Here is the input.
Amino acid sequence: MWNKPWTMKEGFLIGGGLIVAGLALELSVGPVVWDAFSWPANGIVLAGFLLLIAVLFLLRKRVYAFRFVCTYQAAIPAMVYAVILTIIMGVTRQQIGGTWFNDMLSFWPFVLIYVYIALILGVIILRRLSTFHLSLVTLKRDIPFLLNHVGLFLALTTATLGNADMQRVKMITTVGESEWRALDNNGAIKEMPLAIELKKFIMETYDDGSPKRFASEIQILTKSGKNIETVVDVNKPYEVDGWKIYQYGYDTQMGAQSQISILELVSDPWLPLVYTGIYMMLAGAVCMFVFGKGRKSL
Here is the structure.
């Protein structure tokens, strides 16, 4: 073992080593504190990560371990570990501040494995770009590959680092009163960059009196001078100045006569980049289908 060329045995050992290192970090410093990576810290981390990928790629011919990162013998074991950890996350209830398996997004072994996968992706992308040239054959081969891999890299990195900048608060609005304060997940009061006045609470019920639909007619005033009147319905949010406003709840004791509506406001500035990565992967899948179909018809 560890005789060149390295095989998937070494790949599994490297992945296992990351999990052991992650467990050591979990026991010594506790779970990952994502709030510490809010802007501009996450931007600095991303720049440093991209620089690390570039260094590994440039030194791959001198350092065998860096060259090994470009191989499927490294990628497949990393994916196996990621799948196992993701399955554990899927079958356990996830909650902030839970036990190791109940808060996987802050569990060091989970984070390190996905960072390792992103590192592998980054080096492989640079390797493919280094051989890229304009010809029909290589374009059919490289475009789907790059769309899929760059899209996955973009979605992974921005979804992870952008998590610290996501804000989710609840605002309790009352008919006829403007409200600009909201409560975060810890119950702390947060002043918002917009004010909302509840004009009317709307509820439709079934014959047995159970809620069929509930929504809120609201007026929104923003610091940028916008004055908007709209209706926020369940699963039909309204977006303004980077905030999505969702219908969340109401005074259940008053029912249709409720003078209170609870709105949830969500801001996720990195989400467009995550969607860009997903769309790139979809485009890559379409290109693979089209180009593959074209080869079969020849």
